[in-house]
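Record type: monomer structure entry
Structure origin: computed from sequence
Chain ID: A
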Amino acid sequence: MRKVIMILITMIIQLLLILAITVIYHFSFIDTLFVTCFLILCLTWIISYFGNYNGNNQQVSDRYQGGTDYKVKVFRLRLNPVLIGIYLFSTLGILFSFLYYIPYFI
């Protein structure tokens, strides 16, 4: 139950962020939804990926300079309730945007 509440809070915060950007800059909601969801999705993945990359880089450097033994860790995305909320909202936002604009492509 606690995880579900965290996921919902994360999704509500994202929605409020998108609504604030829409109101402040007078953008279209659907366009802001698509761009913001895409950027947040990419940024969270990149931060997770390069966190692992930098850790591996430092450990390998220490191994060759100091002689400590280390195995390189494979990048695996660890999902917590906040990331699940971000990915779920971003996926739904991008899907909703595509469904909104599909008549223009048909």
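Annotation 1: Helices lie at 2-25, 29-66, 81-105.
Annotation 2: The mean pLDDT is 92.
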